[in-house]
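Retro notes
What went well: the complex prediction finally ran end to end.
Inputs used:
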Amino acid sequence: MPDGSFSHPQQRSFNPYTENGGTILAIAGADFTVIAGDTRQSEGYSIQTRYAPKVFRLTDRAVLAVNGFAADGNMFVKKVKQRLEWYRHAHAKDMPLRAIARLIQTMLYAQRFFPYYVYNILGGIEEDGTGAVYSFDPVGSYEREACRAAGAAQSLVQPFLDNQIYFKNQQAAPGQSHPLHLPLSDVLSIVIDSFTSATERHIEVGDGLEMYVVLAKGRSAQGLEGGRGVQELTTRTDGDRVFVIRRELKKD
Amino acid sequence: MDHFPTNWGRPRNDAQDLYNTYPLHQRPNNTPKDVFADGVQRTQQPIVTGTSILAILYKDGIMMAADTLASYGSLSRFKTIQRLQSVGENTVIGASGDMSDFQYVQSILEELMIEEFTANDQNELGPAEIHEYLSRVYYARRSKMNPLWNSVLVGGKKDGKRFLAYVDLLGTTYSASTLATGYGAYIALPLLRSAVEGREDELTEEQAQKLLTDCMRVLFYRDARSLDKFQIAKVTDEGVVISDPIKLDTTWGFAEKIRGYGPQTQ
Amino acid sequence: MTSIGTGYDLSASTYSPDGRIFQVEYANKAVENSGTVIGLKVKDGIVFAVEKLIHSKLLVPEANKRIQTIDRHIGMATAGYLADGRQIANRARDEASNYRETYRTPPPLTELVTRLRLYVQAYTLYSSVRPFGCSTVIGAIDKNGPSLYVVEPSGIAYGYNGAAVGKGRQLAKTELEKLKLSELTTREAVFEAARIIYLVHDDAKEKEFELEMSWIGDESGGIHLPVPKDLHQEAEQKAKDALENFD
């Protein structure tokens, strides 16, 4: 009992972590990848800000989403970007996606005994032109997947993706099989539905949605260019291209 | 590792450590030489504290408010402490939490600003740079498990651009058009948001000042660690102005009618 | 020179038989060859002026400043090797910052000069180093009002009402002595300083020069700042006019 006496020794310790809510998600297509996150940042029941980005463009073909403890997340992104800049100075080209994935593992595991309390999802285009998603745990375990959700509403979104992307618990029509990859428009619809649903059912999700779309070199940007809330971040049209689509989410 | 072979630990001995399971830093004689290392004290809790800070964007710049109280637990220990501080010509910071940590932060900012001044390169740090610097300081200290126990608001206006952002003892940062720390985040922030969000470019100085004063009054009524004396800082194109302490006008007449508070005993 | 070939001038840690340290004297020679630097302590402030010799037309105007800032209220100008002057300025900044950290108050100039001269003097003691090839004119407005010092390569520091080092120091000193320094305002002192620098500059021997001026006074808010552009131009023009009338 903290009765002010010294008969019961007390130990108080500083907790260097907190949890800032929000959710991120990424889905890989055949020749594109969508990486998305909401923009709310919260602590406990308080909304700190309605706009704090969790998704960051790293190169013309790689986008990183971070979720968990925001201070660690921002610092981690800053350090990854710095390493990628050094790589550019040394090799006069951008680091390939799978190399960035391994770099992130190394950087996370280096902090094994004082981890970055951050779930990372890396999305983009591989050197062979395919869409790819890599997901990480806070200490660097990672794998390449077709889709992944993380963060506060992971438990709400991931089962939905399992069903819609991996066709879990779905029976294909007789004589037919499930498609291996979905078209971009379908993927964007699934992403938007995921976030509107998560916003409805999870108090830490909402305010704004940022969806980054990475297109493989040569793929048509039909249906993306000139769309509502769409902005292109790359300046060249003859390589991989990155777009961002911004949407509002409910603010309650 | 150092250059003294006696500190390198014993050579690997298969009989003793068959699979080399000793991590290098645990080898004998390779321990830190600092004899006081076990006795180092770190901040585990704030001692003399300041309560909420409020800040908003408005038409001409940013405005920030803080009362002048520094509490020692529930004791109103220091009643004329200034918790708003200008940093250079374009920035103001306000701190809640541990006041001695804040004084330390003030001193390193003073050192930083002098260093920048002596460089004589016609470049002055603005609010964005000050905030970035503070976020690095706070994050570095939390990463050493030796935090500076504050929540700080940084506001300013430079080259016609307004800036308002938050940083705390964990190194957490964010930016918004209305910000509040401590109890202010629960009590004042909803009032500030409904008055400011979407009207950042219309709110006049008088309206902004009245809004902050009203919120400080609400806080004084409800926050037991607050005071009815506060200061308002504004940063505009004309620079930083921090007001003299302002006394809140408050009404307590209703208290008499509250059962158990006023003269009634039943 | 008597010192050459004797072997007593090879190290700052060796005296000559008649008690001189030639390395320190050589360092003074480096200062004497430099453009003139003057400092004026007047009624309510300090003014520095430097005759910065331009050895190449390719140099960027106003670059390679010879006047440096140590703390908000402390400025200094160096004659001699600029690189050495920068080293001294950096040391002075560290000392000023260190004093502030310890005492939470702006350093008084006497204290700063004491620390700085100990540093400079240490470079006259060892065979492994050479003394600084520069003299430092350092001034401030502190709690005791305006003050001005010169720190020489030997590590000695004197306080002055008006200081001059470098090539034109003799003439500059004579001119400074003519002034009633304690009655001048800082603004008036700027004009006198500019005039003196133009006066001592030897057109025949030297190439181009740039006038560099800074002040600490009520008009600069007690802070060490470059003299404002318009005032600088006005003072420079008046100095040129005075020179023509003088001839």
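What we learned: The helical segments of chain A are 70-91, 97-109, 154-164, 184-201.
What to try next: split runs per interface for comparison.
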